[in-house]
Amino acid sequence: MPRLNSRADLEELRKEILAKRDPNKPRITVCSGTACSASGARQVAVALEEEIRKRGLDAEVELKKTGCHGFCEKGPLVVVYPQEICYVRVRPEDVPEIVQSVKENRIISRLLYVGPGKERISRESEIPFYKYQKRIVFGLNRQVDPKSIEDYIASGGYGALAKALFEMSPEQVLEEIKKADLRGRGGGGFPAGKKWETARNALGEPKYVIVNCDEGDPGAYMDRSLMEGNPHRVLEGLIIGAYAIGAREGFIYVREEYPLAVENVKVAIKQAEEYGLLGENILGSGFDFHVRVHRGAGAFVSGESTALMNAIEGRVGEPRMKYIHTAVSGIKGKPSCLNNVETWANVPLIIEHGADWFRSIGTEKSKGTKIFSLVGKVNDTGLVEVPMGITLRDIIYKIGGGIKGGKKFKAVQTGGPSGGVIPEEYLDTPVDFDRLVELGSMMGSGGMIVMDEDTCMVDIARFFVGFLLEESCGKCVPCREGLRVLHSILTDICEGRGRDEDLKLIEEIAETMKETSLCALGTTAANPVLTTLKYFRSEYEAHIRERRCPAKVCKSLIAYYIDPEACQACGACLKNCPVGAVEGGEDEIHRIDQDKCTKCGTCYEVCAFNAVKKISGEPVPPSPPRGTRPRAKR
Amino acid sequence: MVELGCHHCGYRWNYRGESAFYATCPRCHYKVRIPNQKVDQTGELGKIGLEEHSKNLTGIAKIVNTVVSQFGYDENMLIQILLTFQKNFGWIPREVLSEVSKQLGVPLTRVYQVATFYKAFSLAPVGKHKIRVCMGTSCKVRGAPVILERLEGLLGIKAGETTPDLRFTLETVNCLGCCALGPVVVVDGDYWGNLTVRNVEKVVRSYR
Ligand SMILES: Cc1cc2nc3c(=O)[nH]c(=O)nc-3n(C[C@H](O)[C@H](O)[C@H](O)COP(=O)(O)O)c2cc1C
Ligand code: FES
Ligand code: FES
Predict the structure, then answer these.
(1) ipTM score of complex
(2) Whether residue A156 sits in one domain with residue A97
(3) Cβ–Cβ of A218/B138 closer than 8 Å?
């Protein structure tokens, strides 16, 4: 492929690629994202390839392996274009039938998504999960092959870069981003335009631009899917940003746990360099820009801006005080502009469609869309991109299809370990940066974990504190010691040793940490504890005063027993108990030896008759005598 | 023996140590690069010397050199270099750490600091198969603790340990980025989603 040396070259190439492609030609796309691959998408893709080859349909049917579509729960996903028929949970055995149906222009109803009213939905865009979304950033993921720059160019890619380089001055690009009011998607919601301007005006050369794909927030994976599914969009945003800021060098920091993201972005960089979209003299405009990929080595705190820059310099990823912003003094003391993956991915869209278009989406103070990873106890989990200002209720019930197993909603956790839980009464809150902060939580990077009545709020608070305790770098005292003490208090409460005065102590420690910690890890660390305490105080009190765990989660406060009326003596629990605490035999009701039981819950999970019961705060009923036969066989 | 001059305090002395790459100034403890006898005339810091020297390396030093030279002896690349060893060996032996320190001219304390700070590095041998159980929020609310306990029972080890026959290492992680499928377990890079107490045994057995 010859280098592209001008804007006209790029346009020509685009036309050439489009001319080669027939939009009406049947195209089968298989999601090859990590989640779908885990469910067997790779085998499906191989089977499809073979089937198409075997039938000699290479010329008639196109096969494309794309990045994550978002509907990961139902993977492996196969979508057939141009009709946009979406097949879910496809197995390799289904492949011959799919290929046959594509040829005959038929729909296999057995593989379609089943809607809430048991109806089968064929068109992807009609599925409720997709219907209520607004997928401006993420939408392209399901149409392009992440390893093919041609796909991206065909879809209009790098057009925004050409526009910025040839129609706009760096100042104009900056103004456009400022006007669009793009706020950082990585957590804080800091205006990107302001950060860029600071970096641009800061003294010192060279300047750096950095993509933050560290994504340590447990329960969130949108950065991963963007990076894996459409790395060119992020790269294009980064190049435009570098042009506006005046940087010649950039870094993409990807965590090591995301091998596919590292691979795809490296391929993307190489391709962009070959096409002259990256490197020296980009598109003949005289602008040079180089990018390097850095793998993060697994530490949550190194996602923080100053820590990340330390990590890029090959040092320990510990944060420092931010008297001086990293936009002024970052990597090697030079001005460095760090933004989240999703922030960068929004940039080409703003340049292409204009700031006014971007401003038309969202709420007054938060513009555009946000990708959330809607996970936990909802029916349809996956990545959802919604306009800012949509209510939590719409996300959970309309898009997510409500709570799994018909259980009761309890809370939704946003913002990861820096955020908090939001109870049912605030479900109608519009989602934007400021409204979530008002509730004591925050938008964070976009994790949205739905919890049902089986989740214990004290246990969740302890989980987050435990997570942060492990991840705190230990540099500042309030965070290091505060978390340690908080964790031990919460453990005491969970294990039935809580005292009334603990709750006050928790609040005091939280206050101190908020005021005095070095970085945002410490200042926000108490949020999960404070919000659970604020909205679910009665649950804490039940643990402390009644030694009872209302959700029946905290091991020290629960017991398992087998309901003699329901037990069928099938032996499932007996066989599966890891410690041999279940006694009984064929035709004999099983009993749990409370002294041996470690409360792992295996019996509860495996029992097909709902005979294993969990209780908390009440005495265990006596078991029937040995040799009692099950009711059905009596 | 080489005569060295410290760029920091100007002290000059005869270095008799073994390091081929760096020495420490006896007066101010500044790190001084050892120029090889054939320093390149343009003043390029001993590049020719390093290449010449690396030909004579043997054993671990040679292995380390292939990686370190690939990253251009750049100390900013310390993490990337260690990641490469971690990926290829599964763990990082002590000798490698000290060799990296020598060749990169980074104090051993800093190499250790980095190697112990980040979770990706392990300084002890690990099992042939590495089982990583996600304990992230999403997996947790969907039942990961039960899966972990089951795995601990099946393997007879606790999280963070290795089976005595060096077959399995069990670890917990905080999110594998596959949250929609929770509970998730990764074995040697293969993702297994939607696990239950029942099917987790099958996963382990397929690696036995
Ligand atoms: C403990 C901690 C962890 C963080 N982890 C991430 C992360 O994984 N990804 C991310 O984009 N930002 C993370 N951030 C936020 C970054 O510090 C920074 O604000 C952000 O990357 C800036 O980009 P934005 O303005 O586009 O949001 C983290 C912050 C803290 C305090
Ligand atoms: S990985 Fe296939 S939809 Fe997310
Ligand atoms: S929480 Fe388990 S994969 Fe994200």
Answers:
(1) 0.83
(2) no
(3) yes
